[in-house]
Structure to design on (232 residues):
């Protein structure tokens, strides 16, 4: 059974959770056929490439404590939906600027009766001010270069909280390019957690875990596309 692979992430699913993930896979594939959430070639490896990867965050989230988590650029719901399914005690806010994708996240959450996730259609830099310094953890997967993602995420993380970037073989190069952003935004690299996907010839994956050690200057995140136009 594919779920046995999750033991490498220290995850042992209950029957109820397996049922939820099976339902999630069925619903996601049905929606993806209509609006192409992921490529057709990836549907057959949905678990290995997207669900398993999303759940790799368990290698960091070892303590079973209630948390508020922000997923920036969730797309069709990764990693937000798998996280919400696995962790009943994590309140997930999934953000994406594409309305049709956010609609899918909301509809799947409703069909799975997930009470711990909300989906918001908005650009990350335009989230309300009351979102700043309010999340225990922010995550982002396959959205943008690290120095860009740091500016999107860090202003919304509490001082003492964490940002987790899902990255692959370019992690070291992106870390080097992000030195200025790391300094300006008040974070430090806390951990690098390497893992592999349960696929043949899978490239190494890494979770770059940053801890917010001081308050972020109020001007961040910058508006009007400046984050990607002029990265820190």
């Amino acid at each position: 059974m594919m779920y046995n692979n999750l033991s490498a992430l220290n995850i042992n699913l209950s029957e109820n959770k397996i049922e939820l993930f099976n339902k999630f896979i069925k619903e996601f594939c049905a929606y993806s056929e209509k609006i192409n959430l992921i490529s057709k070639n990836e549907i057959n490896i949905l678990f290995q490439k997207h669900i398993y990867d999303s759940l790799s965050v368990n290698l960091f989230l070892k303590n079973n404590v209630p948390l508020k988590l922000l997923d920036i650029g969730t797309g069709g719901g990764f990693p937000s939906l798998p996280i919400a399914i696995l962790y009943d005690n994590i309140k997930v806010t999934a953000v994406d600027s594409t309305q049709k994708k956010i609609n899918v996240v909301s509809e799947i959450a409703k069909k799975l009766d997930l009470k711990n996730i909300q989906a918001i259609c908005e650009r990350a830099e335009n989230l309300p001010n009351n979102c700043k310094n309010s999340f225990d953890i922010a995550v982002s997967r396959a959205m943008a270069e690290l120095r860009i993602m740091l500016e999107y995420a860090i202003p919304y993380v509490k001082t003492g909280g964490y940002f987790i970037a899902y990255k692959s073989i370019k992690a070291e190069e992106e870390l080097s390019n992000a030195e200025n952003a790391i300094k300006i935004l008040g974070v430090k690299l806390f951990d690098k957690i390497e893992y592999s996907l349960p696929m043949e010839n899978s490239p190494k994956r890494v979770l770059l875990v940053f801890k917010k050690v001081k308050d972020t200057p109020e001007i961040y995140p910058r508006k009007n596309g400046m984050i990607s136009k002029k990265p820190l």
In short: Helices lie at 15-35, 46-55, 80-86, 99-111, 146-153, 171-177, 179-185, 226-229. The mean pLDDT is 94.
